[in-house]
């Protein structure tokens, strides 16, 4: 690339503030969030495996009997609710103990599994 062309590109970036690629990425990256993609069979199988502990209290049929129903929740809401037990937003000691052992992948798999039960 000739020196003048390099200077022209640099001047364009200075006027805009950000290169076009950065602007495009700002819109694309949030659009491909892991929770926005359809759950694959492995996610659902792993979620089902992990859910065996959850379903000792939460009913898999979605019925409410004193313990909140978690079937069919939006996946991001589900993960956010679990993470709230790591802070001070939710204070159930049993849930705190369980959630402390979960990874982000575990939470996403559980969210996908319980969401799938509503279909």
TrEMBL record:
Residue ranges the record marks as coiled coil: none
Protein name, entry field: C-type cytochrome
Taxonomy, superkingdom: Bacteria
Species annotation: Hwanghaeella grinnelliae
Alphabetized PROSITE patterns for the sequence: CYTC
Signal peptide: none
Statement: the UniProt record of this protein carries the keyword Transport: yes
Domain Cytochrome c: 42-118
Keywords linked to the UniProt accession: Electron transport, Heme, Iron, Metal-binding, Transport
InterPro entries: Cyt_c-like_dom, Cyt_c-like_dom_sf, Cytochrome_c_Oxidase_Subunit
Taxonomic lineage of the native organism: Bacteria, Pseudomonadati, Pseudomonadota, Alphaproteobacteria, Rhodospirillales
Single GO MF annotation: electron transfer activity
Disulfide bond is among the record's keywords: no
């Amino acid at each position: 690339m000739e020196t003048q062309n390099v200077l022209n590109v640099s001047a364009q970036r200075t006027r805009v503030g950000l290169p076009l690629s950065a602007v495009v990425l700002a819109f694309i990256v949030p659009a491909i969030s892991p929770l926005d993609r359809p759950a694959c069979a492995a996610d659902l199988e792993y979620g089902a495996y992990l859910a065996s502990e959850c379903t000792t209290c939460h009913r898999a049929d979605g019925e409410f009997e004193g313990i909140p129903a978690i079937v069919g929740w939006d996946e991001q809401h589900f993960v956010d609710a679990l993470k709230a037990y790591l802070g001070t937003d939710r204070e159930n000691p049993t849930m705190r103990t369980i959630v402390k052992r979960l990874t982000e992948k575990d939470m996403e798999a559980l969210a996908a599994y319980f969401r799938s039960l509503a279909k």
